[in-house]
Amino acid sequence: MAKIKFKLNGELKEIDTDPSRRLLDVLRDDFNLTGPKEGCGEGECGACAVLMNQEIVNSCSVPLANVLDKEIVTIEGFSKTKRYEVIKDAFAKAGGVQCGFCTPGMIIATESLLNKNLNPTDFEIKIGLSGNLCRCTGYNLIIEAVKIASKTGEGLW
Amino acid sequence: MKDISIPINKVDNEDKCSGKAMYVADYKIEGMLYAFTVRSSIAKGEILKIEYPVLPEGYFIVDHRDVPGKNIVKVIYDDMPVFTSGKITYLYEPISLIVGPKKEVLNDLLKQVKISYQEEEPAFDWTDSVVHYHFDKGDGLNAFRGLDRIEYNYETSYQEQAYIETQGFIGYPEEDKVTLVGSIQCPYYVKNAVIQALGAAEDKVRIIQATVGGAFGGKEEFPSLIGCQLAVAISKIKKPIQLIYEREEDMLVTTKRHPSRVNFVGYIKNNRIYGLKAVVGIDGGANIGLSGVVLSRALIACTGAYSIEHLDISGDVFRTNTVPNGAFRGFGAPQMFFAVEMFFEHVAKRLKLDSLKFKLNHLARQNDFTSTMGIFRDPVLMPEMVEKVIKESDYIKKRKDYEDSSFKGIGMSLFFHGCGFTGSGEQNHIKAKVKLKKDQDKVYILIAAVDMGQGVKTSFRKLVAHILDIDIERVIFDNPDTDFVPDSGPTVASRTMMIVGGIVARAAKEVKERFNEETFTVFKQYEQPEYIKYDEASFKGDAYPAYSWGVNVVEVEVDKDTYQVNIKKTWSVYDIGKAIDERIVMGQADGGLAQGLAYGYLEVMNHKRGKIMQKNMTDYIIPTAMDMCPMETYLFENPYAYGPYGAKGVGELSLIGGAPAVAMAIEQAIKKKVFKIPVTPEYIMELINNGEN
């Protein structure tokens, strides 16, 4: 057991737990944040993606010890931002949401990409989304959503 | 009034984007236990003895002795036990559940279970035929005498649905009633299976659909198995329990697309395939389940999008000691369309004819007989659709250019999908029922159709709102709950909009007529169009009420050193009758084609002595954003009289043409005939070294 302090969706948290636990389990079980999903449990599918110090990580592959003094933002936190509204509207417009299981992760990936590069090329978008699997859409509609967000979100990133 | 096809925002976007949508793993119930599955470690034999570790307080074993009703999972063919009572027929067959409050403890207990077996030699070759079908058309074999024959063999392997959300349920008891909440396509399949397993009265079982994170057929019949197991555990332990698979377990034990082998002999007269003999085999795995129905859909599609006068068609489901195979988007059609499209290509080549002209010469036309002597009653727009795809893709020029260049190719597939259940399934087995309830200013859609991502919630609310000419916010459609919705049938077979939507549209018209009444319910049942007559035993008659049609063109480059396939672009044209929402249909078009293309060149799954060798998303490669190419899609309207606004089936059609189109493009790129999918770099190397030109 160890005390781990970190910032979660803007609030300082401290929990006393086994530091080898997966961040995903802590988010879902201890904080009831079920937006991050478990798709594969081995860092391959991106359904559990969250932001750690603004970088996308797969929370199923992050032991809680690594979160010490870091800032974590899940889809629940991100969905309160203006950037989220822009991305969500873009996903709706492009038809990028089907079953929705990958969608929170895809939105986190979009934020992580646009945060670094507001005008990504098609190829850069594909690289940005390549850690997130989607079985429903064939990706083009999601790529289109990122393009729309990058256009309509000017000034926000 | 606005054209119904004009897209609207999906009604569930907000919840799915923000992470609020509740999938089964997101439900938490106070005091919920977890269930882990004890499985066999051999592929065939008898259990001699099971030694369980001493269970801590609050932990339980649930096995076949706890099944109060019939120890058989009710599917179309009832041959799968809820828990085996001793006989093992495939590796990792479920034996029992260990249930308790702590996952770590359950994991430890699972490792300590000792099972001894009387092992038998498992069967992996395809010799044990458990379903055999045969039918002919025209003069059958007699028509073939004295004609030149051309023979080829085709093979397809497994495909895994790879929904991103794994299989699972949670459930809880309420006095003597069991409620399950699950990731499912067919609430009433699960309900009826659980009733049989528990020997319970109908009102003692309740099934609720959670938000479904992808299904693609994988959550058609498999959930009935684990639903029964969980229901048995709940009725024994009387506590809420969660049974959710991790990815590895899901990949190793859930149903997959049937591997297939097709032997075609074409009999040639005047440069046409005058007669066709087909011998088809599919690997059913350890149980029959849906395999017979999959086989019949495959056999009926044996002539592809073409008319052939004389047929002799036979097929078998072979039982092997491998994981049971089952439903997957397309349901036998993807296997057959791969084989038949390649066969037409290869026959044209042997006859030194242009393959596109050869195909167009055989194309089925309106009023032609189908393979089962049904009739293509509606207009067939394929010639115009082919013309469109040629124009958009520049197919003719590219096809010619790539004949002289190496490692570039373009391929075209022509295909259809029979919409709805095969044969008289709708009338005899399903008998779909729907209810619309008007209460004050709201209208409630009460059906068992599941939104698994394909947009049912949006398109049905839109359909009813459009007919009633009211705001979509006034039309309510919640996830199906069997305590409240009638059985409108399973969410399968590209039937939901065409069949269930057709009944809902009829009900909505009645609601409209009575709209000034405050509160009332309209009940409607499926009425089979009079012309549909089908005899299942002889394969004679109209196997489907309507057909959706498609053309795919795929352009590829193959790396000359690594033989990696790079898809440059695709062009598609579909006739789905009428789009209820064009953006949703485009989503189905893209997603289905992505799965179809990947089936053709990317997704490798196989077994070694009954053990599936790909056990996670790292081993089993599905496309990532990096693998995708631009896709152009065009829709042709061709309204079907009994579909709402003319709509026909969409969901499965878009998967079917991908594999043959990509395989033909690769064939042109490497100048060697392709006979099996997936066309991997290893297979390309084999073809380049030893293949047929």
Description:
- The complex is a heterodimer of chains A (157) and B (693).
- Chain A is of the alpha+beta class.
- Chain A contains six helices and five strands, in the order E-E-H-E-E-E-H-H-H-H-H.
- Chain A has two domains: 2-75, Beta-grasp domain (Ubiquitin-like (UB roll), Roll); 82-152, [2Fe-2S]-binding domain (DNA polymerase, domain 1, Orthogonal Bundle), CATH 1.10.150.120.
- Chain A is globular and about 45 Å long.
- Chain A starts with a strand and ends in a 5-residue tail after the last helix.
- The model of chain A has no long low-confidence stretch (mean pLDDT 97).
- Chain B folds into three domains: 30-121 and 167-244, Aldehyde oxidase/xanthine dehydrogenase, a/b hammerhead (Aldehyde Oxidoreductase, domain 3, Alpha-Beta Complex), CATH 3.90.1170.50; 260-422 and 538-690, 2-Layer Sandwich (Aldehyde Oxidoreductase, domain 4), CATH 3.30.365; 425-525, 2-Layer Sandwich (Aldehyde Oxidoreductase, domain 4).
- Chain B is built from 17 helices and 28 strands.
- Chain B has a seven-stranded mixed β-sheet, sandwiched between helices.
- The N and C termini of chain B lie far apart (57 Å).
Name of the CATH superfamily of the largest domain in chain B:
Aldehyde oxidase/xanthine dehydrogenase, molybdopterin binding domain
Output the structural class of chain B.
Answer: alpha+beta
* Helix and strand element order of chain A: EEHEEEHHHHH
Query: Main interface pair?
Result: A-B, 52 and 57 residues
The N- to C-terminal Cα distance of chain A equals 39 Å
Cα Rg of chain B: 25 Å
Reported by name, the CATH topology of the largest domain in chain A is Ubiquitin-like (UB roll)
Characterize the main sheet of chain B. Answer: 7 strands, mixed
The strand count of chain A comes to 5
CATH classification, class level of the largest domain in chain B: Alpha Beta
Q: Name the overall outline of chain B.
A: globular
Rg for CA atoms of chain A: 15 Å
